[in-house]
Write a structure and sequence with these properties.
about 325 residues; alpha/beta; six-stranded parallel beta sheet; about 35% helix; about 20% strand; globular
Length: about 325
């Protein structure tokens, strides 16, 4: 069986779609899978069982990217095409069956909307596919020792970014005497590129050097998933890394402001959210509102709320960890 799976441009949405793909390869053992996705998300599928190829789909003007994908897919007789981008592609190539997401974004969690494409209720949770080399790399970077708190201080939009000094204060509270993880080390996660490095730099500069592990731009997505799985706790802005951490099984706290957690909260039993005290609708209604400075929205999320969310999550998970 040959499956063409067309998923998201961004890492976070691509992670949310992995549960569907996992369902398909479990339902059809031995299937050969081609994944089309954004270039940033391509590495997410490197260890996918049955992977035939990944086609990076970089957005181009006049929807030229769809014609490029069509030219690479038209010569294959597919058994199933799943198109989560709602394009016309699935109707322009030969396939025995097709499932196409329709209607664009709607209220409700994105995972539920994705599950509906295949009629799955409840929807399958996100997964990550990790290789032994990824685990070895993660073990070398995060060797055994005190617990590790992962921090994700970056996002694809500055309006989602919590102030750097609050990440530092959060770590001090959680890893200090009386905190939920006293004596913990800290690992700072961020993707490649100058923008990610610039957002992470103030956090790295202020953390204690002897207890800080700099992972900014150093990991592939599968290596990052393996490293996140070794963290006792991950706290980060609403981003692809947040969804990757949750899929990897790390206790994950997502920090939310402009995007509603009702739609994009991290998925799974080991997750929690802390959200800004000022609602986005209230901020927009202010006469001095400027969409370029919505970082002020994240400023209404105090350190105390993030500490409380993380401490409550760890306390909830403690009985299960002790068994």
């Amino acid at each position: 069986m040959r499956i063409l799976f067309v998923t998201a441009t961004r890492i976070g949405d691509a992670v949310l779609s992995t549960g569907l793909l996992d369902h398909l390869i479990r339902t059809h053992p031995g299937a050969r899978v081609t994944v089309a996705c954004g270039p940033a998300a391509a590495g997410l599928f490197a260890r996918l069982p049955g992977l035939e190829r990944v086609i990076p789909l970089e957005k181009r003007g006049w929807r030229v990217h769809w014609w490029s994908l069509w030219s690479r897919a038209i010569g294959t007789r597919w058994d199933l095409v799943v198109d989560l981008r709602g394009s016309a592609l699935a109707w322009l190539i030969r396939t025995r069956a097709r499932a196409v997401m329709r209607g664009g974004r709607r209220p409700g969690h994105r995972l539920v909307q994705l599950g509906a494409v295949l009629g799955l209720d409840p929807p399958p949770p996100p997964v990550v596919w990790i290789g032994e080399a990824d685990r070895a790399r993660a073990a070398a970077l995060l060797p055994p020792g005190p617990p590790v708190i992962g921090l994700g201080p970056t996002a694809n939009w500055r309006g989602k970014v919590w102030p750097p000094e609050r990440f530092v204060a959060l770590f001090d509270r959680l890893a200090g005497a009386g905190g939920a993880l006293p004596g913990a080390r800290v690992a700072v996660f961020a993707g490649p590129g100058e923008a990610e490095a610039a957002m992470a730099a103030p956090v790295l500069a202020a953390l204690p050097r002897g207890r800080t592990i700099d992972l900014v731009g150093r990991l592939t997505l599968t290596e990052a998933a393996a490293a996140l799985a070794r963290c006792a706790l991950y706290i980060g802005n609403d981003s692809g890394l947040m969804h990757l951490a949750a899929a990897a099984g790390a206790p994950t706290v997502g920090l939310f402001g402009p995007s509603p957690p009702e739609d994009y909260a991290p998925c799974g039993p080991h997750t929690a959210v802390a959200r800004t005290r000022v609602p986005m609708a209230e901020l927009i209604a202010r006469p001095d509102y400027d969409h370029r400075t919505t970082g002020s929205l994240m400023g209404s999320l105090p350190v105390e709320d993030a500490v409380a969310a993380a401490s409550a999550l760890l306390a909830r998970l403690a009985p299960a960890a002790a068994q």
